[in-house]
Amino acid sequence: MSNGRAVGVELGIEDHSLISSPVFHPPSFSPCRRKGLADHPTTALNAMTTAKPVATRPSVPTPSALTLILTNLKDSLVYLTVLPLFFLVYSTPTFATFYALLVQTFSRQTIFLQITFLLTFASYWIHCLLLSLPDLHHLPQWITKRKIQPAKTPSLEWYAKAAKSVLFNQIVVSAAWGAVFYKLAGWRGMQCDAPLPSVAIMVRDFLVFVVVEEIGFYYGHRLLHHSAIYKYVHKMHHEFTAPVAIAAIYCHPVEHILSNLLPLFAGPLLMRSHLVTFWLWSVIAQFNAVNSHCGYRIPFLPSPLQHDYHHQVFNANFGVLGWLDRMHGTQGGFDAWECEYREREKRAVEGRKD
Ligand SMILES: [Zn+2]
Ligand SMILES: [Zn+2]
């Protein structure tokens, strides 16, 4: 990795082995460090291109609950339109007939393992390939203007590096995990046979999944940031200080199991959900993970700002939705930075130089 620093600077990837001393510790993050979280060795480049110390910013009022709800609804418009459409198709006799045919054609093991793999693998790569267009081909312009960290340009070389890790996690780690999941699903009584669950049951299960995922991901992520563990496992994922879509599961295999797979599978196992419910959940959760690493705030898609900020400053925003970050006060200076970012994005979209 002799040229890692040069390429890393281009993309905003840190080669931690080449960093001698940390230069940036936002004052507001000191509570995280007091709780035993690892310090983030940050380059001078990051000090210039990522969040500034909160103390230097104008104070920003904490957004009200109503503002947060309205912002989240706007950012979730894709789910609020696509999901009802999906449920409409799902409720038709044609869909039920198609699923009955699937169950008659394939064994339970094939449906649980191979079809689940194909579904998640294809949806991940289609989404990543689409989101690679602004990075690698600067298209379309209405998205490129919304680059969250415009000073950091990803290269094809780092895309290739990320792809190798992602493929290993998807094919080797997830295949091994799939065998464990299959046993657990049998033990918990998860079904894949017809009839399909009702929309009401799916929505009920989803509400539990969201809570379980938030708890599992937040505390697992906090654990991965502990100074005794960080450099062995989670440091790899944080090589991307300016994340790109494909880097959503660019991580150590231990992290992939602890932080990505366990919180994703725990809810469906707990609720003994139908496999179809799990399929929809895993595609949505994966879409969310890829989107939160894409590096662009695309209108009406879930905002990636929270997690992008985590990659910038390292010791803030550990959760998915941010509920537990607000509860534990681990947002760092996110609200102030988000306010600044939205102003900057507005100027970029309108083509203003002021
Ligand atoms: Zn990440
Ligand atoms: Zn992290």
TrEMBL record:
GO CC annotation: membrane
Keywords associated with the record: Membrane, Transmembrane, Transmembrane helix
Chief location bin: membrane
BP-aspect Gene Ontology terms: lipid biosynthetic process
GO molecular function, one term: iron ion binding
Subcellular location(s) per record: Membrane
InterPro entries named among the record's database cross-references: Fatty_acid_hydroxylase, Sterol_Desaturase_Related
Residue stretches spanning the membrane: 77-102, 111-133
PANTHER family linked: STEROL DESATURASE
Protein name per its UniProtKB record: Fatty acid hydroxylase domain-containing protein
Fatty acid hydroxylase domain boundaries: 206-330
